Amino acid sequence: MLDTKPDATSKHMAILVAASAALIGMGAISICEMSAFGWHPAREEPADFSAYHFARMLFSMLLSAFLAAVLARPWLHRVADDVTALDPTEIRNGTLTAAVAAISVAILAWNPPLFHWFAREDNILEWVSALFVLVGAAFLALAVLRRARKPFDGFGAILVGLLIPVGFAGLYFLIGMEEISWGQRIFGFETPDGIAARNWQSEFNFHNIHTDISELAYYFGTGLFLIVLPLARPALRHWKIASTFSDFFPNRAVAALSAPMVIFSYGHWSLVPIQMLTFTALFAMLTFALSARRRGERAEAMLFAGIAVLIAVGQILVLYFGPHMLDLPDATEFRELFISIGLFAFAAYYYFGTAPDGPTPERA
């Protein structure tokens, strides 16, 4: 039997309450800390483990659990038979990405200088990350060109089929070019004086003019998009105000590829949004694992359960060995690698149209 309108309204209201509680909680703590201690809400610093920080960590976990519990309900109660299983290639890709994350954590614990070598400017991680995002931009641009050949029926079709994908393609291009400072080290041009004077690294890019703010916005924003939105997909898909944009909801396969990003949070662990994103990612992976188990998808359940364990253990190890890093921002380069993998995966799914579907309309 289909949901009645009051039932659907109550579900939507629960989502709004949980999301509002999370946002208000993050904002309230950040404002209080800035007022009481002078802590900038987007700072990068070594992780602290005082009694206050443990209490705040608990608060972040509880808020994240509340949000995740609300978003997990459709996965665990109503859509178990309506979710298309991940195929073997997706499971293999998720396993491979998780293995890369585990090896990265092991390198930090075993050989911090090698960890630093990978994270250096203009080295392999930076270029691979930029390549993933730029190829993703190409996929999105090709999707736009393919869609533009067909007629559009009204502004809504133009918005969803043309304007939003163009915006995504432009954003991807901006991220990729910013990552490599717009080819400055390739072409060898000098940074204009006006930018060099404001840029923290005297490079030709804009994100290093206010690095802390841009990093927090990028890490938190991509985390919401690549990890939290896939968890929310069943709850939002049939909500009229959101269903129009359902083509731009990443699927759980993308979340599996992106989830390792939260592990590399040492320099930003003291920020409430980053803590909450980490806990929510953990709960999301557990939700996907339980859903797969109920559907009898053993390999998929093992994948998501393994990623959940990786997030929990990996984050603990990164926090423990973080003080041994040669440079505080080293972990961020690894984080950006997994962000770029997730962004690439979303763009590829969008272009090829092969994303595993979320729940179809609830069956009678």
TrEMBL record:
Sorted UniProt keywords: Membrane, Transmembrane, Transmembrane helix
TM region positions: 12-31, 51-72, 93-112, 124-145, 157-175, 216-236, 248-266, 272-290, 302-322, 334-352
Tree of life domain: Bacteria
Keyword Nuclease (UniProt): no
This protein's name: Uncharacterized protein
